[in-house]
Model the fold of this input.
Amino acid sequence: MLQLQTIREDKDAIVTALKKRNVDADAMLNGVLQLDEKRRSIQTELDSTLAESNKLSKEIGMLFKSGKASEANALKAKTTALKEASKKLGDDLNTTAEELQNLLYQIPNVPHESVPAGSSEEDNEEIFKEGDIPTLVEGALPHWELAKKHDIIDFELGVKITGAGFPVYKGKGARLQRALISYFLDKNTEAGYTEIQVPHLVNEASGYGTGQLPDKEGQMYHVQADDLYLIPTAEVPVTNIFRNEIVKEEDFPITYTGYTPCFRREAGSYGAHVRGLNRLHQFDKVEIVRVEHPKNSYAALDGMVAHVKNILRELKLPFRILRLCGGDLGFTAALTYDFEVFSTAQDRWLEISSVSNFETYQANRLKLRFKDENGKNQLAHTLNGSSLALPRVLAGILENYQTADGIQIPEVLVPYCGFDRI
Done:
């Protein structure tokens, strides 16, 4: 959420920056400023009314003590009117503050200056590419056919149990899935991230804290009886650990990693590009989350990118990195790098990680602050990244490592799997 002071001071610059997202924010920002002015005016009037009421109350007390009951009773009528006025002003203040908050929730984060302009994923900027695309054996298959051939993932059984987008992993497929989770967590903890296990459901306040609500409400599974949401990513519960917290400056950087299943409705997703593991309603992901001093957050982002690079190099998968354009940038992000692995059998790039800096946008919603060297509260910066999302990594391994004799296992995963071939 953008800060009110920043909007007051730099409204025109924010309007210009948000045009990279193809968002005309002028009317919304003017609405914010008008509501803020109204809120402050009501607050001033309320403070004045309460001060006058308190003053009269003291006078009434003194009059009663002096035996001037008639004068005191005359003043009591004024205090009654002031209390009624105060209640109305308080109600108006709460209504205006709620309207202001709801409008602020609708304004996306300001893109970093390096974000390219653009309207869709076609305008994303490729900044890095590495790895040789393998030459597959004749008759090479996409992963959903490989999974059926080797009986390691059963998509039809998932449909029977739940519905489309909920696969069942079997035998060596399940072991490979578990191996990837353990490998990713080990790589992250070796890099200094503290492993954490978090709830898989969150309350509404957590959804608003990291920005999934109200922006992604239609994409989240909502347990209405309990007013809880199944998490779309570990980012939500992990980052919300710091909601309404003031952390110590010397504690930076704060780094966590966690494995969770993730749940996304993916409403409106259909077609060949969502077959198999390409797009699921439930999938496994290992996440990395950082809380940083604002001065260090972009260096930290570069470090996260380098960390994911190293994992993909060890897996020996061909990959590339994209800097997302304004039109493809997530609602809460200031800058995002997407990692994509090349699926040779599908002849297409598959997104397998997003690494983002949110600057103060989430922290302002969360009220996540730290005390600077002058003892003043400042907003921290939050970052997160997939390290990694499993479905498309697994799809890339199955397709790119297939041979005439089966599917080889990447060397780095063999100790985790206990086998080197499917």
Remarks:
- The mean pLDDT is 95.
- The first strand starts at residue 125 and ends at 130.
- The CA atoms of residues 191 and 307 lie 8 Å apart.
